[in-house]
User: Which sequence fits this backbone?
């Protein structure tokens, strides 16, 4: 009989599927637009130079509040996975990658796609975590500390004896900038924050905390330093940029790096946006010359110099090893609690950085956030639709 005695062919081994949870922005608007999805996929085919990282923690930044409202121009249109920084363990590497290996603990940075458990990205966008650094700390380093370092040292050329005004001094960038100011001798830091945060930011290095909610911070600074300050870090925009410019000493510099005054609620407020831009500072070069002042703008998302980017991260990691900087973690939230984390940031309740945990052990003690599971099945494609 045909086939008698022939060994039956072995069925192909089943490829183990991977499961990854992701926070997907499905549209612009309120917290309900962020949905927790679980995708099941085949192991991704890594392209040359890529690694796959299982993230343990992700950072939450003000840019995500803007992105949720459609106010962050670098974020792809929904549906998209937000998040620009994270930390975790390398699970796979492309054949040509020699400086990363499976099991490495790394910091990972990308323009988006970081709010998920499994992420594929270029190996060059990962950085080895120092010994003793927690995953939460690692996820808090890139965006806040890169922003603060480049503004203070690459742009403003911070030197001993200078004075700096840091708005939102209890926030992620604010605490990073305060710590970095402490690495330079005899720098005076004015920091705006609500009164309940003054003791903490004073301990962190703010020389003169000012309650912006109950006092005129311009008048308070003038009482202490009649000539003003040398550097203003302005994440607010609008009328606050005018105030900051007027506070500058001759040869001083204001660095605009945000427009927090545009964000007044869960959803885009066109009136707030229009008001902020209507009051935006407008000067010509003649006025700048007459005042002997400088205005600069900073946006980390548009930094394309990889040597500068990488060099700055390695400087920051060295400062961490030396004990000169240490991210302050305000709170850690699971993916299911992202609305609570965003609300805490929006209401400016945080002191330091908010972290999102990627593990599946979820707490359900905060019922005001209704999350949704949608199961997506991919066939070998590791990219999240965007």
Assistant:
């Amino acid at each position: 009989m045909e086939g008698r005695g022939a060994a039956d062919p072995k069925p192909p081994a089943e490829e183990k599927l991977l499961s990854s949870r992701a926070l997907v922005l499905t549209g612009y608007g309120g917290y309900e637009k962020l949905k927790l999805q679980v995708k099941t996929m085949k192991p991704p085919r890594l392209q040359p130079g890529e690694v796959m990282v299982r993230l343990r923690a992700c950072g939450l930044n003000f840019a995500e509040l803007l992105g949720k409202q459609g106010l962050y121009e670098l974020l792809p249109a929904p549906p998209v996975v937000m998040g620009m920084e994270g930390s975790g363990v390398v699970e796979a590497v492309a054949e040509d990658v020699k400086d990363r290996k499976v099991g490495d603990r790394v910091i990972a940075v990308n323009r988006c796609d970081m709010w998920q458990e499994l992420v594929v990205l270029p190996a060059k966008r990962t950085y080895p975590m120092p010994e003793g650094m927690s995953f939460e700390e690692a996820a808090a380093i890139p965006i806040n500390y890169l922003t603060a370092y480049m503004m203070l040292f690459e742009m403003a050329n911070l030197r001993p004896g200078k004075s700096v005004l840091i708005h939102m001094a209890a926030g992620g960038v604010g605490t990073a900038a305060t710590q970095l100011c402490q690495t330079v001798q005899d720098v005076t830091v004015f920091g705006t924050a609500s009164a309940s945060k003054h003791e903490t930011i004073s301990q962190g290095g703010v020389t003169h905390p000012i309650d912006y909610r109950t006092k005129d911070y311009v008048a308070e600074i003038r009482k202490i330093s009649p000539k003003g300050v040398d550097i203003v870090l302005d994440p607010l925009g609008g009328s606050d940029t005018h105030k900051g410019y007027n506070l500058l000493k001759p040869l001083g510099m204001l660095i605009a790096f945000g427009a927090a005054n545009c964000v007044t609620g869960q959803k885009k407020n066109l009136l707030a946006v229009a008001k902020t831009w209507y009051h935006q500072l407008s000067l010509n070069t003649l006025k700048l010359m007459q005042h002997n002042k400088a205005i600069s703008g900073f946006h980390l998302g548009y930094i394309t110099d990889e040597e500068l980017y990488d060099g700055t991260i390695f400087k920051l990691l060295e400062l961490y090893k030396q004990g000169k900087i240490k991210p302050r973690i305000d709170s850690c939230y699971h993916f299911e609690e992202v609305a609570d984390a965003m609300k805490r940031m929006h209401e400016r309740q945080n002191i330091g950085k908010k972290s999102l945990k990627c593990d599946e052990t979820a707490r359900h003690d905060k019922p005001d956030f209704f999350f949704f599971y949608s199961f997506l099945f991919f066939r070998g494609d590791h990219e999240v639709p965007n």
In short: The CA atoms of residues 87 and 107 lie 4 Å apart. The chain is about 25% helix and 25% strand. The two ends are 57 Å apart (CA to CA). The chain has two domains: 18-140+327-357, 143-321.
